[in-house]
Write a structure and sequence with these properties.
- The protein has about 180 residues and is an alpha/beta fold.
- Among the domains are: about 90 residues, Glutaredoxin; about 30 residues.
- Strands 3-2-4-5 form a four-stranded mixed beta sheet, covered by helices on one side. A two-stranded parallel sheet has the order 1-6.
- β4 and β5 form a beta hairpin.
- α1 packs across α3.
- The termini are far apart.
- One of its GO terms (cellular component) is mitochondrial large ribosomal subunit.
- Keywords: Mitochondrion, Ribonucleoprotein, Ribosomal protein.
- Pfam families: L51_S25_CI-B8.
- Its main location: mitochondrion.
- One of its GO terms (biological process) is mitochondrial translation.
Length: about 180
């Protein structure tokens, strides 16, 4: 095991408490677009500012957008989130479409950076070589090729019949097999 994890922040997985239960709260708080007015590597950023910035601001009223012109520097997107984390994206020679894609990605992220060592409540000296358990670990591979909706796969085989199904079967047996059921027809 390497010691590279010693320099990473550590903690438990934190999510915004019940984000999306009442309403969704975008975690991106502020975006600063830094660019040079003359440098050729900032051309895509300037094109985005001229043609796409107003639409982005109208579609995302909860995100504050700042413009910061700087001389002789490359274009940078600086994003700040509600949890205090910051992300920087170097936009050297990016096209306008690439900047739009990066802004949409930043808008949908929670702000937790990848440089984070996750801590667990449990520890073992012999971790599993098979990987973590998921709900799909012991599923039948035939379900991968099935066309849904499928009657055979819709009801698990280990569950007993429901009371409604039992009553329907009893009614069908009694009406077809008994002489009273035949007289009623």
């Amino acid at each position: 095991m390497s010691n590279s994890h010693l320099f990473l922040k550590s903690g438990f997985i934190r999510t915004p408490s019940q984000n999306g239960v009442g309403r969704y709260v975008c975690q991106l708080q502020r975006v600063v677009l830094k660019f040079c007015k003359n440098n050729g590597s900032s051309r895509g950023m300037r094109d985005f500012i001229e043609s796409g910035l107003v639409d982005f601001a109208k579609n995302n009223p909860g995100i504050v957008v700042y413009l910061k012109p700087r001389r002789h520097r490359t274009a940078v997107i600086s994003a700040e989130y509600l949890n205090g984390d910051k992300q920087y994206i170097n936009c050297r020679n990016f096209a306008k479409e690439e900047i739009i894609k990066w802004l949409n990605l930043l808008k949908t992220q929670s702000g937790n950076t990848t440089g984070f060592r996750y801590r667990k409540l449990l520890h073992t000296d012999h971790p599993s070589i098979q990987g973590p358990w998921t709900p799909y670990t012991f599923k039948d591979p035939a379900e991968n090729l099935a066309k849904f909706p499928d009657q055979d796969l819709s009801r698990p085989k280990h569950l007993p019949k429901t009371a409604t199904e039992e009553l329907l079967e009893l009614f069908q047996r009694s009406s077809l097999g008994s002489p009273e059921g035949k007289r009623a027809e």
